[in-house]
């Protein structure tokens, strides 16, 4: 099914993704409080009535934007983790870190709004927690599958290990962004940190 479209000032029709891209850029540049529907309409090449009709008021539009970014990120996580259980620990650590750092690098505006953006009411805050919980749950499943495949007992609850990995990844990613660092190098550091932590937790380590 094709995406719904809106008519621009020039009579052209845009997919909803175009409207959301414009809104994401304005919210990222101006912040939620300062962003105006008129700014979003201007950037999208459409009208305020069209935006209201298609996406709702400013808070509705913000939530549409953040939800879309959350769904994209969840998809990247699912794709990355799909075959991770068969990988050695060093490769598994890289796979575990890759989606977050890739998202920060390729969808910087979306990353900032989803994980670091201003809140419009409590719903975006809840959404952020849902996303992180979902990532932790998927990583927990991946760790359990990895333990089953390789037979190594990491000596700690899988969900606690997953939460630690997600926390490390997010902290390293945000620090790197704030310092203007290299996200690729930061991903490698985070992956090595997690890999070494897993090695130290192995009760019965086996060759990798």
From TrEMBL:
Pfam families: TetR_N. Residues 13-73 form the HTH tetR-type domain. GO terms for molecular function: DNA-binding transcription factor activity; transcription cis-regulatory region binding. PROSITE patterns: HTH_TETR_2 (PS50977). Residues 36-55 bind DNA. Keywords: DNA-binding. SUPFAM superfamilies: Homeodomain-like (SSF46689). Gene3D superfamilies: Tetracycline Repressor, domain 2. PANTHER family: HTH-TYPE TRANSCRIPTIONAL REGULATOR PKSA, HTH-TYPE TRANSCRIPTIONAL REGULATOR RUTR. This is DNA-binding transcriptional regulator, AcrR family.
């Amino acid at each position: 099914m094709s995406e719904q479209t809106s008519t621009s000032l020039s009579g052209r029709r845009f997919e909803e993704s175009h409207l959301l891209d414009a809104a994401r850029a304005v919210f990222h540049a101006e912040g939620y409080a300062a962003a105006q529907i008129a700014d979003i309409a201007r950037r999208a090449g459409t009208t305020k009535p069209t935006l209201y009709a298609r996406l709702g008021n400013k808070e509705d539009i913000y939530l549409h934007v953040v939800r879309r970014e959350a769904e994209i990120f969840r998809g990247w996580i699912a794709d990355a983790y799909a075959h991770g259980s068969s990988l050695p620990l060093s490769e598994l650590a890289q796979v575990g870190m890759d989606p977050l750092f890739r998202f920060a690098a390729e969808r910087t505006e979306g990353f900032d709004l989803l994980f670091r953006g201003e809140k419009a009411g409590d719903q975006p805050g809840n959404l952020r927690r849902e996303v992180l919980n979902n990532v932790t749950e998927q990583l927990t499943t991946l760790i359990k599958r990895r333990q089953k495949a390789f037979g190594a007992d990491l000596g700690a609850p899988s969900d606690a290990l997953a939460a630690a990995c997600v926390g490390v990844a997010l902290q390293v990613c945000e620090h790197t962004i704030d310092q203007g660092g290299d996200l690729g190098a930061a991903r490698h550091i985070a992956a090595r940190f997690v890999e070494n932590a897993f090695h130290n937790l192995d009760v019965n380590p086996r060759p990798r």
